[in-house]
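Translate structure to sequence.
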């Protein structure tokens, strides 16, 4: 058991994690297509038309997975940042930095698709609704994390400052999730709940789940690609990176 733990712990080193990430990236791109293509087909061509919202409801197959991923990625980013702060591990900060842009993309996508959905349903592109406002704050937290790290030249100091911001911002995630229960809000409640049967047609549910898995696989593939670039940038002085660059050239 201890030998297995030691085997896995070796990947905490950027030098060991770099080739591992390279091997995993193609598989996650394949999974992105494997889930995404049937997910798009079911969502936009197979799932029935909603009797209240018509065809316009289909934006939820992009909006909901993006919203889920924006919250989930923030928690993962903050976890890695917190581990880096507590254990002073280099790779943790690199992973947090790699995840942030994808999380910001998902947050922006959820806000944009939410506006497209809200205009025909609510008659307005934007309302200062509890969930929408807290989701906007999440987007600004991502942007703040990215900007703060970019503003500090020393990578280790940037990781520590970013970790503090990320950990403070975690409190916003449960606010987003529970906002429709805590406040009077225009945003509809969850249609998928772990404790209740889903309130949507089976084909809609399959489309939603496949799209969520596709977004998940995409996020991992992009984060792994980005962390490899960050490793090369931060470890440029290391002998193994110099040797790697010599092989490439």
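Result:
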């Amino acid at each position: 058991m201890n030998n297995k733990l030691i085997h896995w712990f070796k990947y905490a080193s950027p030098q060991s994690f770099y080739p591992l990430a390279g091997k995993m990236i193609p598989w996650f791109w394949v999974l992105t297509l494997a889930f995404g293509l049937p997910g798009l087909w079911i969502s936009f061509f197979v799932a029935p038309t909603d009797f209240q919202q018509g065809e316009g409801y289909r934006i939820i197959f992009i909006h909901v997975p993006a919203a889920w991923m924006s919250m989930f990625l923030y928690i993962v980013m903050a976890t890695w940042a917190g581990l880096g702060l507590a254990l002073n591990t280099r790779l943790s900060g690199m992973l947090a930095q790699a995840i942030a842009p994808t999380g910001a993309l998902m947050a922006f996508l959820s806000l944009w698709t939410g506006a497209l959905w809200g205009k025909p349903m609510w008659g307005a592109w934007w309302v200062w609704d509890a969930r929408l406002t807290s989701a906007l704050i999440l987007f600004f937290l991502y942007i703040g994390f990215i900007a703060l790290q970019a503003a500090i030249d020393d990578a280790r100091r940037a990781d520590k400052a970013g970790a503090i911001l990320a950990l403070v911002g975690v409190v916003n995630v449960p606010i987003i999730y529970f906002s429709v229960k805590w406040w009077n809000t225009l945003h509809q409640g969850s249609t998928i709940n772990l404790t209740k049967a889903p309130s949507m047609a089976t084909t809609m549910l399959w489309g939603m789940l496949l799209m969520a898995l596709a977004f998940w696989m995409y996020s991992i593939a992009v984060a792994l690609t980005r962390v490899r670039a960050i490793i090369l940038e931060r470890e440029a002085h290391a002998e193994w990176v110099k040797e790697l660059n010599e092989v490439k050239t």
